[in-house]
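Hey L., structure's done. Input below.
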Amino acid sequence: MSPTQTPMSAVDRAWLRMDTPQNPMMICGVWTLDRPVSMDRLRRTLEERFLRFNRFRQRVIDTGDRAYWQDDPLFDLDNHLHQIALPGKADKAELQKLVSDMNSTSLDFRRPLWQMHYIDNYEGGSALLIRIHHCIADGISLVRVMLSLTDKTPEPRLSKVASKRHSKPHRRSAVQKFLHRAVDNAQTAASQARLFIQSVREEPNYPLKLASTASGVALDLIKLGLAPYEPATGLKQPLSGRKHVAWADPLDLSEVKACAKALGGTINDALLCTVTGALQRHFAAHKETIPECGIRVAVPFNLRPLDQPIETLGNQFGLVLVTLPVEVLDPLMCFRQVQENMNRLKRSYQAQVTYSLLDLFGRGPDIIERRALDLLSNKASAVLTNVPGPKDALYLAGSKLTQPMFWVPQSGTIGIGMSILSYAGTVQFGITVDKAIHADPDAVMGYFRESFQALSHAALAGRQGEPERRAG
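Output:
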């Protein structure tokens, strides 16, 4: 192995091998900006803040049985940052068309797996299209990395960061490597033993809790394996590989909070219920029978502490299967069912189980991962992400960020990705759909707003009716 190569983690390798022509494993984002941006300033921002993560200067070396990160000897920012312009009086439809096309196109594996397109001539301002391969990091981490490019004011002070010169690692003999691993393993074992003894001293029933946790993990693993396949609906079709992207006008976050508070639930409960209502309207518009047992969506669950800065990239998340009760048409009853489903998942170990499975798949043969991926992807109709964003408006290279959107890739046979992102007192909602699936993304965006309004009206009507019921 070349000294400039770093072994890829098993989990990152699992995401690398999920890449297919039908579902490129890219996290895609589009930011709309209120004014044009100086390319020189944008380049300087990327050099100082984005490229401080060495992973963005490294390409993937895949030998079949192993994968490595290797510094790209020909790295040039011009290979990754491109400037283009939309034609004529470009509107949202033109930008969505461009994002859809780029979201359907794989990255160049000869170079570091990311690209950005700065887009001029968009509604008097500009936009930035971002594509990063999932093997580099999970979506939650990458959203935080991208937000680190922004500032709270239009004119920040850009400090020059000295480029790090990496010294070549000292080559060790096979015996030295073996001894080094043995010492590491012994130190880890001793540390774990000390932690266990300390826990027993502080809490005598700790071994019983540990055994209970282990049995809970095993039970969740069995439940995941025995979960039935998704019902046959128009949302599950053979995929074409061509994507259609759309996003909605943002919701007012204060209205979402008021709705959740009136119902005695969380913002997440209200938004998942809104997604459920949007899918109900989709089935009704297509005169399609609604599945009696609901449908499931795969939701990434962060396993990285959110209160700590991102120092290293990589994938640190698991997936949970969330049942959306599309068969429950009453908004309030639907909310209660969503709330119950989420509370049950919060007590489970499903995220840790799926993370461990990805680690296991990344270490094994490709054919085993493919079969396991097909098995799991047949148990969800869509991928849904919900990421909390900044509370205040931000600026990129002096231009105000008016609307940020991100989509995580879909894997296996899943052809729909939905994303929710809070930003500056608003809630952004977007969707990407494989063109082989008979679902109009723009129509679903309209259903999303209709669904929230129906839930909000029902919640407020219920709250207003409470005093009358108490008086009676």
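Residues 174-223 form one domain. The first strand starts at residue 5 and ends at 7.

-- N.
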